[in-house]
Design a protein that fits this description.
With 53 residues, the chain is mainly alpha-helical. Helices cover 74% and strands 0% of the residues. The longest helix is centred in the middle third of the chain and has 22 residues.
């Protein structure tokens, strides 16, 4: 990232994208059984826990 002291190479960008894609697939798989309301509640609770830390 510009100004952060490092820059990813094109291969680094490709690998980073692959990891994000894998994380999204895993997230979709794990949260598939839950309703949109349950997922929203979980996200809200997690945000509140993080803010308090």
């Amino acid at each position: 990232q510009e100004g952060s002291g490092f820059v990813l190479t094109p291969e680094g960008h490709r690998q980073a994208q692959a990891v994000w894609d894998m994380a999204r697939r895993q997230q979709d798989r794990v949260f598939a059984p839950f309703s949109d309301e349950e997922k929203a509640l979980f996200a809200d609770m997690l945000k509140r826990v993080i803010v308090r830390c």
